[in-house]
Amino acid sequence: MRKLIAVADWGADSLTCQEVRIAIEGYLKDPSKSNISFVSSTPSTIHTGFIINQVCETEERYGRPLETVVYQNTDPRIGQTEAVEQAKGAEFIIVSLYSGIYICGPNAGFNYSLVKAKIAKVYRYEGMDKGRQFRSRDLFTRIGAYFMDSLEQELDLEEIGSDIIPVLSGWHIGHIDNYGNIKTTITHEEFKGKYEYGDEVLVKINKVTKKVKYVSNLFGSKPGDLVIYPGSSGKPDNPYLEISVWRHFDEESPTTGLAEFNTPRPGQGVKIGQNS
């Protein structure tokens, strides 16, 4: 049986997670063998997309991608300003990556954008976009269970093109970890040739502009310095850049990247350079 990793903006709510687990296991052939875990996102589809990409990167590097299903749900109805009937949301799709990982969930915003280059095939599954307020529990769980049981051939899937998945342009906050380190969608390659280690770079986040030192790692300057550096997310040979402060956490005010930029949120834009 494949394991299932759920990435969702309700992932921090224990009741919701338990309801989803109950529903999935109710559809499984042998629920005693189920392996389900949850990763909390926010209503930002950029955040969900970043988490999905990182989960897949780590699974492909260290795990068992052929035995993994990622089940995602972040659908904030961005762009909708009028009332919708039957809680209608984004179209439900399933993608298979070249590594063998399956990802299923609503094609809302940028949920799939950061794995777009890894996608081998995209499928549409009709009837999942409306009908229930809690689609994650009442509709999506059956599909997740089918993939866990390797019964995807029994689903009436329609193969479609990957052009329905939007490209994410610009730079953004992808994730903020529990230390307050800001993980961006800027890759290290995008800095190479433009800046040298030790340079000060102007960074604007959340309407706050600051000088940030470009270094090789979080501990590449002095404690207390605001730094930007190749982080632990993304590809090993081209990681995403992170912004934070090396702290011993015994300081009177141990601010990190989160506090330095006035508590930004995942999904917000990041600007670099003189025009920031």
Structure write-up:
There is one protein chain. The protein is an alpha/beta fold. It folds into two domains: 162 residues, S-adenosyl-l-methionine hydroxide adenosyltransferase, N-terminal (Rossmann fold), CATH 3.40.50.10790; 100 residues, Bacterial fluorinating enzyme like (Elongation Factor Tu (Ef-tu), domain 3, Beta Barrel). It contains five helices and 14 strands. A seven-stranded mixed beta sheet has the order 2-1-3-5-4-6-7, sandwiched between helices. It has a seven-stranded mixed beta sheet with strand order 8-9-13-12-11-10-14. Helix 1 links the parallel strand 1 and strand 2. Helix 1 crosses helix 4. It starts with a strand and ends with a strand. The mean pLDDT is 91.
Keywords:
Elongation Factor Tu (Ef-tu), domain 3; 2 domains; 5 helices; alpha/beta; seven-stranded mixed β-sheet; 276 residues; 14 strands; Rossmann fold; 29% strand
Radius of gyration: 20 Å
Number of strands: 14
Question: How much helicity do the residues have?
Answer: 10-25%
CATH class of the largest domain: Alpha Beta
CATH architecture of the largest domain: 3-Layer(aba) Sandwich
Summarize the structure.
The chain is α/β, with parallel strands linked by helices. The protein has five helices and 14 strands. Helix 1 packs across helix 4 (140-148).
